[in-house]
């Protein structure tokens, strides 16, 4: 009974906590960082290995668009846009965070920011053949608070896009517990066997040991169709293929 009460309390208190966090974040941004600054510390949670992966992917693929869910304050949006020179389509559901990101990114013309739910955003983009029939890099980072749309996001991308590389933030890295991850960020949560069966996806993880990062890094996973298009991932030194251990 105590566990049930705690679960209900945490569920309803989280909205209040998140609103207080939004206020604190907004004040901090307005005082310390009203505009995006492109430097070595910006983007991808400051994870050095993640930036190497992104740069390797830019070298191995010809992305026409970068798609992001969960803009937050726009640091990763700005980093991807400035590093690649590729149009970035990004969405943020939280109106306060959307307004802060819009203010901080206003000088970068080829970032297209939308105040939308990530599922609605991806469904809308999926209607545009200029996007779905060309190579896209997709960065999923809209999992925050009580909303965990990750499974639906993966399903939309995997079933409606022809060529894509999908990176998911806050993910457990098998074999390296030094990588930080959220509670949902496990292979059990997204069920890799089901993804292979239904969408023919393969998974890759950072090859850089967490110990080589200057501070405890946040993990990620990279997904793509398990066909010739995944060849660019297989020859990317900053990634390693996930192979499920066989049961003897």
Summary of the model, kept short:
The chain has 248 residues and is α/β, with parallel strands linked by helices.
Spatial shape: globular
Lateral strand order in the biggest sheet: 3-2-1-4-5-7-6-8
What is the first-to-last residue Cα distance? 41 Å
**Runs with pLDDT <50, length 5+?**
none
- CATH architecture identity of the largest domain: 3-Layer(aba) Sandwich
Proportion of residues in extended strands: 15-25%
Extended strand count:
8
Whole-number count of domains: 2
Q: Summarize model confidence as the mean pLDDT.
A: 89
Our Rg estimate from Cα atoms comes to 18 Å
Q: Which percent range fits the helix content?
A: 40-55%
> How many helices?
10
What's the order of the H and E elements? Answer: HHEHEHEHHEHEHHEEHE
Name of the CATH first level of the largest domain: Alpha Beta
Could you describe the largest sheet, including whether it forms a barrel?
A: 8 strands, mixed
Give the helix/strand class. Answer: alpha/beta
Within CATH, the superfamily of the largest domain carries the name Vaccinia Virus protein VP39
CATH fold-type name of the largest domain: Rossmann fold
What would your notes on this structure say?
With 248 residues, the protein is of the alpha/beta class. The protein folds into two domains: 1-32; 36-241, Vaccinia Virus protein VP39 (Rossmann fold), CATH 3.40.50. The chain is built from ten helices and eight strands. The protein has an eight-stranded mixed beta sheet, with helices on both faces. Strand 4, helix 7 and strand 5 (164-169) form a beta-alpha-beta unit. It is globular, with a radius of gyration of 18 Å. The model has no long low-confidence stretch (mean pLDDT 89).
């Amino acid at each position: 009974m105590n566990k049930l009460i705690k679960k209900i309390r945490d569920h309803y208190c989280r909205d209040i906590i998140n609103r207080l966090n939004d206020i604190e974040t907004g004040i901090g941004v307005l005082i310390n960082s009203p505009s995006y600054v492109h430097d070595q510390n910006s983007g991808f949670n400051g994870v050095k290995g993640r930036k190497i992966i992104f740069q390797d992917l830019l070298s191995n693929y010809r992305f026409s668009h970068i798609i992001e869910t969960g803009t937050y304050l726009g640091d990763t949006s700005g980093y991807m846009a400035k590093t690649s020179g590729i149009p970035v389509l990004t969405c943020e559901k939280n109106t306060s965070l959307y307004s802060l990101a819009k203010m901080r990114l206003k000088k970068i013309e080829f970032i297209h920011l939308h105040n939308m739910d990530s599922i609605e955003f991806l469904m809308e983009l999926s209607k545009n053949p200029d996007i779905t029939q060309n190579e896209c890099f997709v960065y999923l980072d809209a999992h925050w608070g009580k909303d965990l749309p990750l499974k639906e996001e993966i399903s939309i991308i995997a079933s409606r896009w022809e060529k894509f590389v999908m990176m998911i933030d806050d993910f457990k890295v098998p074999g390296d517990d030094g990588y930080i991850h959220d509670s949902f960020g496990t292979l059990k949560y997204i069920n890799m066997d089901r993804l292979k069966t239904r969408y023919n996806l393969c998974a890759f993880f950072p090859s850089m040991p967490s110990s080589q990062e200057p501070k405890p890094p946040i993990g990620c996973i990279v997904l793509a169709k398990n066909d010739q298009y995944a060849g660019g991932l297989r020859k990317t030194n900053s990634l390693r293929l996930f192979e499920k251990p066989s049961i003897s």
